[in-house]
Amino acid sequence: MRASDHLTILAAIAVAALLVASPRAGLADKKDGKIWKEPAQEGSPLQVAVPSFAPLGQALKPTVVSIWVTQTIDPENLDPMFKFFKEFFGSLPEDFKNKGEGSGVLINSSGYILTNNHVVQDATDIKVTLATGEEYEASIVGLDPATDVALIKIPAKGLAAAPLGDSDSLAVGDWVLAIGNPFGLEATMTAGIVSAMGRSHIGPVKDHKYQDFIQTDAPINPGSSGGPLFDLSGDVVGINTAINAAGQGIGFAIPINMVKALIPQLVEHGSVKRSWLGVSIQTLTAPLAKAFGLSGDGGALVSEVVDGSPADKAGIEIGDVILSFDGKTIDGIEALSWLASTAGEGTKAKIAVWRNKKKKTVQAVLEALPGEAGTVASKKKKKKKSTKAGKPGISVQSMDKDTAAKLSIQPVGSKFPGLIVTAITAGSPLSTAGIQRGDVILRVDGKLVFKASHVLNPVMKAKKGDVVVLYVVGPGQNGFAAYTP
């Protein structure tokens, strides 16, 4: 047999083998024509059991509403871009309309809805759309810009309502669900976990004075503001209020326990009537805690006491560290601000303070918050005098009568305490403690200062591990600074 005949026979055998192995070759044997594998009826042994949020989402959906608002804006208050159009076209309508959207959650069957203050504030028209598609005109019951909480109402009965849970029971890592109206996409549900607790100094609402946000990675987008944050029991644990545009998937919610403290006043007064202790406070840093003889990092350091305030009458002093308020531990300045503001006028609060390395308890009778002053004393301005030669890195000037009068500094004998910082070199010892030009150093380690050596000697003699505590009246508000070599 020739070699070419051998090759022909081998090729035929190879083609036959391929046809037998090919899926297409077996199509004739498949009555339904399928070429894929169907799952086993008993389920795959590789299956991973992951809980579905679908049943919970379906149950919660009727409690969430979409909010559509119209605001009338004075053309004179428009941003520069709109003012350009006004100048170009000659005029704008007197009733220039701005439309916005948000979310809310029904909290009872009679139509009360929680949302954000910034969603409905200054709105001339508020429309609420239920999950059923029904639409209602809503009215504002109460607003609280300081927490960005609003309560509105629609004329309806027999509505589904979401229970308000306990935000204090949340822990980092817990699953949460957010439902809202992002970008006008009604009834959108997202899931994530609680990624942090107790966040503060979060925008975008500049009027937020009381912040203790729940941070979550459940996506919250524009239009979701005012919507609920649920736990896996279907309870509302927060009201979504802010997003971080720079951080993908980071959102913030007002703890529902804060909101529950406000609802009765929003219903009764339409606003929140806050109480007042009358102190300026600052965070107790680790160096300051060490200097005051405290081992923990909790508490709020009193940097100023307003004359005639409840704190002043109770005997609270500058330099006290407030450890607890009416039996509740103070773990930071936000906690004290919140408790003192919501306790109510006339409340007698027992306050534990740390003074001279000893615990002391005083009682303060809280008063109504005076105007819009808040619990922080007003800022004070100072004159800056000409420079006088001082020690390396810093120039100071003795306190004069006029500046002392402006700062309410009382004389001791014939002299006024305090040194005005007129110049300071970057990187010098006191600059590392945060002292700036224009500050007035009033005390060092609790002692009044009258001359440069009273400040510089303790600083220059400090050894590694020591803490020098300075009490400063700065361009902003009074406070403590700590120098650690």
Question: How would you describe this structure in keywords?
Answer:
alpha+beta, Thrombin, subunit H, seven-stranded antiparallel sheet, six-stranded antiparallel beta barrel, 20% helix
Layout of helices and strands, plus pairs?
Layout: H1 3-21, H2 54-60, E1 64-73, H3 80-89, E2 96-106, E3 112-116, H4 117-120, E4 123-129, E5 135-137, E6 139-144, E7 149-153, E8 175-180, E9 188-199, E10 213-216, E11 228-230, E12 236-243, E13 251-255, H5 256-269, E14 275-276, E15 279-283, H6 286-291, E16 300-305, H7 310-314, E17 321-325, E18 328-329, H8 333-342, E19 348-355, E20 358-365, E21 367-368, E22 394-398, H9 401-406, E23 419-424, H10 429-432, E24 440-444, E25 447-448, H11 452-461, E26 468-473, E27 479-483
Antiparallel strand pairs: 1-2, 1-4, 2-3, 3-7, 4-5, 6-7, 8-9, 8-11, 9-10, 10-13, 11-12, 12-13, 14-21, 15-16, 16-17, 17-18, 17-19, 19-20, 22-23, 23-24, 24-25, 24-26, 26-27
Structure description:
This protein has helices at 3-21, 54-60, 80-89, 117-120, 256-269, 286-291, 310-314, 333-342, 401-406, 429-432, 452-461; strands at 64-73, 96-106, 112-116, 123-129, 135-137, 139-144, 149-153, 175-180, 188-199, 213-216, 228-230, 236-243, 251-255, 275-276, 279-283, 300-305, 321-325, 328-329, 348-355, 358-365, 367-368, 394-398, 419-424, 440-444, 447-448, 468-473, 479-483. It is an alpha+beta fold and 485 residues long. It folds into 4 domains: 57-153, Trypsin-like serine proteases (Thrombin, subunit H); 167-269, Beta Barrel (Thrombin, subunit H), CATH 2.40.10.10; 275-368, PDZ domain (Pdz3 Domain, Roll); 394-483, Pdz3 Domain. A 7-stranded antiparallel β-sheet has the order 5-4-1-2-3-7-6. A 6-stranded antiparallel beta barrel has the order 8-9-10-13-12-11. Strands 15, 16, 17, 18, 19 and 20 form a 6-stranded antiparallel β-sheet that branches.
